[in-house]
């Protein structure tokens, strides 16, 4: 359904007007592209989301093993998508390792990373991690006798780069997001309000149920936790934005809310299991310390005060996959999905399943080999 008719149908309450105003302002800020702001559930079926975290496409793109890793990451995603058949996918940041991509536009690698989801006709949304717009790091070995290798620029969507374009100048968050949105009708990602820059992936989506089309089943909030070209932090402006928007669209906290960003907040350190993962935490690997954001600017205080916020999902730490309670909400890691990035822990994907009646949110981890573990009820 086009966005305009969608707005017309829902235009008879003050709440909806506020909602419209918000989404129209978002649409305006993302220039000519106005993607859908909602996802619909299938009749009689639970709503299922797969989280793809830390794919790190384009790692050491000039070597043989770099591109091989990307092929393996595509196999992981394909296996998860075919086993779980989710309704929606969240790309939870570090989609590419931009500091390793010696070409002008990292979107070519970004595009490879989203291709398994796109080719199956599944809609998705993405947030930025600390590697997605990181500046290129010139390998020291390029300055030794062997010299700078011949750069191979990937060709995708019949776009091939040549000359100046096939040399590195970096790809900004705005460019990455614009390329994703402009070239993919299934992408529900957005460039958020300009007053939240340099954070870009700040937006909210509603999941509408088939049975009650005017009442959202759940709200999905996406926040940019920084890193790469600016500090790893969720700003006070982002926290205030979340507070304002959530109070506008969900004033009585009646609709459950789920939150997605890349880098764990400091609160994750407080609940982290010391050695083995034990109750109330649920998970299978606890192999490293939480690498938290650099500062806490207020988002967690706001989240814990909202009874509708059920869980936060992050990536970033490839060796952690647990969920632990924090006040009335859950703090969860996804599962390292990509062959790119540090660590050799087996790859997988955290799955979320939202049931409408009775309402419940459950989660588990689906591994590349098809096995399942770490089932947990989050609401
Ligand atoms: Zn990562």
TrEMBL record:
<feature type="signal peptide">
    <location>
        <begin position="1"/>
        <end position="29"/>
    </location>
</feature>
<dbReference type="GO" id="GO:0016788">
    <property type="term" value="F:hydrolase activity, acting on ester bonds"/>
</dbReference>
<feature type="domain" description="Calcineurin-like phosphoesterase">
    <location>
        <begin position="47"/>
        <end position="318"/>
    </location>
</feature>
<dbReference type="InterPro" id="IPR004843">
    <property type="entry name" value="Calcineurin-like_PHP"/>
</dbReference>
<dbReference type="InterPro" id="IPR029052">
    <property type="entry name" value="Metallo-depent_PP-like"/>
</dbReference>
<dbReference type="InterPro" id="IPR011230">
    <property type="entry name" value="PAP14/16/28/29"/>
</dbReference>
<dbReference type="GO" id="GO:0005737">
    <property type="term" value="C:cytoplasm"/>
</dbReference>
<keyword id="KW-0732">Signal</keyword>
<protein>
    <recommendedName>
        <fullName>Calcineurin-like phosphoesterase domain-containing protein</fullName>
    </recommendedName>
</protein>
<dbReference type="Pfam" id="PF00149">
    <property type="entry name" value="Metallophos"/>
</dbReference>
């Amino acid at each position: 359904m086009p966005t305009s008719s969608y707005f017309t149908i829902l235009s008879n309450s003050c709440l909806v007007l506020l909602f419209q105003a918000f989404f129209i302002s978002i649409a305006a800020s993302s220039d000519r592209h106005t993607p859908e702001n909602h996802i619909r559930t299938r009749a009689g079926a639970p709503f299922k989301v797969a989280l793809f975290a830390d794919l790190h496409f384009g790692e050491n793109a000039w070597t043989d093993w770099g591109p091989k890793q990307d092929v393996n990451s595509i196999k992981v995603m394909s296996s998860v998508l075919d086993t779980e058949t989710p309704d929606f996918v969240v790309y939870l940041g570090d989609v590419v390792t931009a500091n390793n991509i010696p070409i002008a536009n990292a979107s070519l690698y970004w595009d490879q990373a989203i291709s398994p989801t796109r080719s199956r006709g599944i809609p998705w949304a993405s947030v930025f991690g600390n590697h997605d717009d990181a500046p290129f790091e010139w390998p020291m070995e390029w300055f030794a006798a062997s010299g700078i290798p011949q750069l191979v620029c990937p060709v995708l969507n019949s776009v091939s780069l040549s000359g100046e374009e096939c040399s590195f100048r970096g790809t900004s968050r705005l460019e990455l997001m614009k390329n994703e949105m402009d070239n993919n009708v299934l992408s529900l990602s957005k460039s958020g309000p300009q007053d939240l820059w340099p954070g870009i992936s700040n937006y909210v989506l509603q999941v509408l149920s088939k049975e009650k089309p005017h009442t959202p089943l759940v709200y999905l909030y996406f926040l940019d936790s920084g890193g790469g070209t600016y500090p790893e932090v969720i700003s006070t402006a982002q926290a205030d934005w979340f507070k304002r928007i959530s109070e506008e669209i969900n004033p009585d906290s009646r609709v459950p809310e789920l939150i997605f960003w890349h880098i764990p907040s400091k609160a994750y350190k407080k609940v982290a299991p010391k050695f083995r993962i034990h109750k109330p935490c649920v998970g299978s690997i606890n192999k490293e310390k939480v690498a938290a954001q650099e500062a806490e600017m207020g988002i967690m205080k706001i989240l814990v005060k909202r009874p509708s916020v059920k869980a936060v999902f992050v990536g970033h730490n490839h060796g952690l996959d647990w969920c632990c309670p924090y006040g009335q909400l859950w703090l969860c890691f996804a599962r390292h999905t990509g062959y790119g990035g540090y660590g050799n822990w087996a790859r997988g994907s955290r799955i979320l399943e939202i049931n409408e009646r009775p309402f419940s949110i459950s989660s588990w981890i689906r591994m590349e080999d098809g096995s399942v573990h770490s089932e947990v009820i989050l609401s």
